[in-house]
């Protein structure tokens, strides 16, 4: 697949991020109960580096929520482990919703029960994304090593039933990494048609500078979304990343927190977002000099960012699918 031609547009800060980032990707936890072979944390020692701060402190999370709520920003709960292992996970997610944040939870789905599932649905968590990577028990045992297929099915079905019973607006989606050995189309069909999720995200296989890709052999779809020679990375113009210590990184590729743009425990996020660090990165990318930045020059995943094929598209497509269910229109498989 050849690289897509750049869209005819002038690159700049996204309008919804002019005052404050649209999305804050939170490394909420580092412990995990799975050993997924495509996970950069499985394949590195990063978790050991956070042995002193495995969970984001409640006070750090609340400060982030307090600042983000007035802007309606998305808190994307992710990171180096399974978010539902955090001892205060549900309480903190509900706090963020009460402050006006939008909350998108990425989870392997293993730690849900009736009580915490109901609490999240009733709070109107904006989107729950189940990382599934398979459509059979056999495939799941490889792609999601350490987890139980039947537990996942039980927990996803319960979440869907609770949403229906409570007439909730929560979007329920699944995601799968398009990698060798995974029939991504069958994964999509199974989870949409047989299980009933709203949408399936087909993720590119990313290296994060850690996973080996053997010249694309581990990827099921190595085709690029953008041309890094002429297109700046969109992440700089919409989001930032925060680790458990409150350190802010310039982008999600820097999962080792080498680019410390500031710390949200002692600084306002808005000030960091408009500070000299982010402005320098954006300026370099807008001038076509992104590859003069060592971090960006060495990023093999820049080509898989997109100004159009992104999280906001997923949110819109999942919401459309949820609305179709309300009107009784049959589910359809979306064009990726």
How would you sum up this structure, described in words?
The chain has helices spanning 46-49, 58-68, 89-98, 114-123, 137-143, 149-166, 184-195, 269-273, 276-286, 294-297, 311-326; strands spanning 23-29, 74-79, 102-107, 127-131, 171-177, 199-203, 239-242, 247-249, 262-263. The protein has 336 residues and is of the alpha/beta class. A 9-stranded mixed sheet has the order 6-5-4-3-2-1-7-8-9, with helices on both faces. β5, α7 (184-195) and β6 form a beta-alpha-beta unit. α2 (58-68) packs parallel to α3 (89-98), α3 packs parallel to α4 (114-123) and α4 packs across α6. The two termini are 15 Å apart. The relative contact order is 0.15.
What is the N-to-C succession of helices and strands? EHHEHEHEHHEHEEEEHHHH
Amount of helix: 25-40%
The residue-averaged pLDDT reads 91
How would the global form be characterised? Answer: globular
Structural class: alpha/beta
Strand proportion: 5-15%
Number of strands: 9
